[in-house]
Design a protein that fits this description.
Aspartate Aminotransferase, domain 1; 26% helix; Rossmann fold; 3-stranded antiparallel beta sheet; single chain; 412 residues
Length: 412
């Protein structure tokens, strides 16, 4: 496996397990100002040098509506117009080319270029030989949100494996992790539990970018494709989305705010159970409830837990879609008050333990492990264990993961 990376000034860590070549000179460091310069995404870096990394290549582009430069240009148009680059075909992930649907997606066509868009969330989730005909380079540019069970990174893994099988190179245009690159939480996925909502052996909140995860998957699992990551410039691990200066584009129909993305690793974790997580409301993942739930009692119990960085408001809501459609639900609205101290996984586990205690018959947690993918944690919740003990049990694997990920990181 050969691999190169374009990196910004902060990306100085050596890639110890796989030989690396620095692909381009570093951009000049801007002079200090009162308003920091916005982060440049990998797409911005690619566009700025006229798609030099793709010169002479036959490209298949894996993207969706989030694949834009920071000034609003579609990456598909940037690549299509680049000198010496042939854009052959397009691929879309879950939610489709426009990121607008919550179901299986068929193939389509991009109106501007006339190119076919192969769906990787329809009859197949992996590029086939037919789809890859005439392609020598797969380019991946999709905004991830930093949660293990969000499926865009699963699509990335499938593309890496398909490229290894069919002899394509893969270029990842990296983007910031909206949840930052420092905090990690939740159980680490075991290899035997890997599936489309768990692409690699990482915790629920992993603190890595798509480019870093690509390096990790290729490096740890020996996926035999040539990989190049075009890194962001100006992004640091401590940066959350608000620090980037980049516009927010909803990456999927129900990921409508940055706050929803921050809550998602904890609240989305409970979606397999008989709860509404706000789908069919204006605030998905910012509210949670059920027709059988006492929102006032739940909010009081959560306040008593003194969780950092979040407040709780009892609410009633009636989803217009998804679970409990048309039914009035009692529940809680989550208000994030401090982004840096808030711990979404601790919140999710606390909600679970409170529901288990207050609604032992009504709350059905048989499918809790669908996204959690860690039977010991599910059993501790079922048995009424305390939150601190549940979280403490994750720490040895998280410390090992912290060491495992180090060789693959691109940013300081």
């Amino acid at each position: 496996m050969r691999s190169t990376v374009r990196r910004g000034p902060a990306a100085a860590l050596p890639f110890r397990l796989i030989p690396f070549v620095l692909a381009a000179a570093l951009a000049p460091v801007p002079a200090p100002s009162q308003t920091p310069a916005p982060t440049q995404t990998g797409a911005d870096v690619l566009a700025a040098d006229g798609c030099l990394a793709l010169r002479g290549r036959q490209v298949g582009l894996v993207t969706n509506h989030t694949g834009r430069t920071s000034d609003g240009r579609r990456v598909v148009d940037v690549i299509a117009a680049a000198e010496g680059v042939t854009l052959v075909t397009l691929f879309s992930p879950e939610h489709g080319w426009e990121g607008a649907v919550d179901e299986k997606v068929g193939d389509s066509r991009d109106a501007a270029t006339g190119l076919r868009v192969w769906s990787l969330y329809g009859e197949t989730r992996r590029p086939t030989a037919t789809m890859l005909a005439g392609v020598d380079t797969l380019v991946f540019d999709i905004q991830d949100i930093g949660c293990r069970f969000y499926t865009y990174v699963s699509t990335l893994r499938n593309c890496l494996e398909a490229a290894a099988e069919h002899g394509q190179r893969v270029v990842v245009l990296d983007r910031p992790n909206p949840l930052g690159g420092l905090a990690m939480a939740g159980p680490v996925l075991a290899d035997e539990r890997r599936d489309f909502v768990g692409a690699h052996r990482v915790p629920v909140r992993h603190g890595m970018t798509a480019g870093e995860l690509a390096r990790m998957m290729v490096g740890e699992d020996g996926i035999g494709c040539e990989l190049q990551v075009i890194a962001c410039r100006g992004w640091q691990r401590a940066d959350l989305w608000a620090d980037t200066g980049l516009p927010w584009i909803n990456p999927s129909p129900n990921m409508r705010t940055v706050t929803a993305a921050l809550l998602y690793p904890g609240i989305g974790l409970l979606e397999g159970t008989n709860l509404s997580v706000g789908r069919g409301t204006d605030t998905p993942f910012e509210v949670l409830g059920a027709p059988w739930c006492d929102g006032v009692r739940l909010a009081a119990a959560l306040r008593a837990a003194r969780l950092p960085g979040v407040a709780f408001v009892p609410v009633s809501f009636t989803p217009t879609a998804s679970r409990f459609r048309g039914e009035r639900c009692g529940g809680v609205h989550f208000v994030v008050t401090d982004w840096r101290s808030f711990e979404p996984l601790r919140l999710g586990i606390t909600v679970a333990t409170v529901l288990r205690r207050h609604h032992p018959d009504a709350w059905q947690l048989d499918k809790l492990d669908w996204l959690l993918k860690h039977a010991p944690t599910a059993e501790r919740i079922r048995d009424g264990a305390e939150v601190d003990g549940i979280v403490a049990a994750w720490q040895p694997d998280l410390q090992l993961f912290r060491r495992r990920r180090q060789p693959f990181l691109l940013y300081e």
